[in-house]
TrEMBL record:
GO terms for molecular function: DNA binding. Residues 41-60 bind DNA. Keywords: DNA-binding, Transcription, Transcription regulation. It holds the Pfam family TetR_N. It comes from the Bacteria. It comes from Amycolatopsis thailandensis. Residues 18-78 form the HTH tetR-type domain. This is TetR family transcriptional regulator.
Amino acid sequence: MTDRSSKVYRRGMGRRRAFDEDEVVRAAVGLFGGRAYDGVSVDDLVTHLGVHRNSLYKTFGSKRGLYLVALRRHLADDVRPLAEALAAATDATTALRLVTSADLGLLLLAAVERAPADEEVAAEVAAGLAAVDQAIADALGIPTALAAALTAAALGLLLRGDPDGVGTALTQRLDPLD
């Protein structure tokens, strides 16, 4: 007679994960930040993250589930520290330089690509942008609407890739405002 209870118990416990979830999420931030949500297939995730498809779905539920976890990690690891650094900015030029030098690829792509179609992504993006706007407003003592305009200008430079030195020209124009 076989003891089935031990088999059930082992199945119930499940296998240990063969990957570090934290590393996978950080790698997903880079992948989604470089290629956007629609530019990354599940096969790309499996290949680049080194995670089996079943493990990916078991851990994150779906590609979108992993994307949301990655976006939240990006906000915590990249956007929040930017907001903290902006708190020390003393002029608009410094604030603009901080934003344009930050790693905001995933936030920017999420705002452009996913937020219009996904309310949950839109809420995360709005919260991240609001934190940056508020940090600029507080640091410079300006209205939040003006800070939002500076954030929008900086993100626009990131989106353009600043091929013509627009960022340099803009910061030169902002210097007299400081």
